[in-house]
Amino acid sequence: MTTQNGGTQRPLFDLSAYKGLFLSEARTCLSSLRQNLARLADEPADKEALQEALRAAHTIKGMAATMHYYDLAAVAGRLESSFRSASRLSPEQTDTLSADCGEIEAGLRRLDDSGETPDSPGRTH
Q1: Which terminus in the chain has less CB density within 10 A, N or C?
Q2: What does the DSSP 8-state code read for residue 87?
Q3: Nearest residue to 100 via CA among 63, 56, 46
Q4: Are 45 and 88 in contact (CB under 8 A)?
Q5: How far is the C-alpha of 120 from the C-alpha of 106, rounded, in Å?
Q6: pLDDT-derived band at 82, boundaries 50, 70, 90
């Protein structure tokens, strides 16, 4: 939700206060994603691992979108779609999903290392 002030839009609350919590929760979800991908590499049709991975990807997607980290939300959305449509994963799919996890990890590291906040200028949407 935003408010207009002199022709500019500003959020009604400061999302940057939640950046640390977002990073912590996203890393927890990423760890779950990786653990479940390892399970799926050994047992490609493990329904529980697929559901847990789907849940973790969905959580990252929602949190990232809420924080206005749209690039991370898009990657997590790709993961979520892959898990939602799969009944088993091929080795190639597992490799692709692992690379997406690496992309999320790199994005979290950039956010952690930078002073970037959800409202920083120049953010891509």
Answers
A1: N
A2: S
A3: 56
A4: yes
A5: 18
A6: very high
* pLDDT at residue 12, rounded to an integer: 65
CA dist 120 → 15, 68, 93, 113, 115 (Å): 11, 10, 34, 14, 9
- Residues 68, 10: Cα–Cα separation, whole Å: 13
Q: From CA 79, how far away is CA 60, in angstroms rounded?
A: 10
Q: Which domains does the chain have, with CATH numbers?
A: 17-113 (1.20.120.160)
Burial 94-104 (b: 16+ CB within 10 A, else e): eeebeebbebb
Whole-model pTM? 0.83
Residue 102: what residue type?
G
Please return the burial class of 78, using the count of CB atoms within 10 Å of its CB with bins 0-12, 13-18 and 19+. Answer: middle
Determine how many CB atoms are found less than 10 A away from the CB of residue 55: 16
What value, to the nearest 5°, has the Cα angle with vertex 121 and ends 119 and 125? 75
Average pLDDT over residues 96-122: 83
Q: Closest Cα partner for 108 from 26, 17, 15?
A: 26
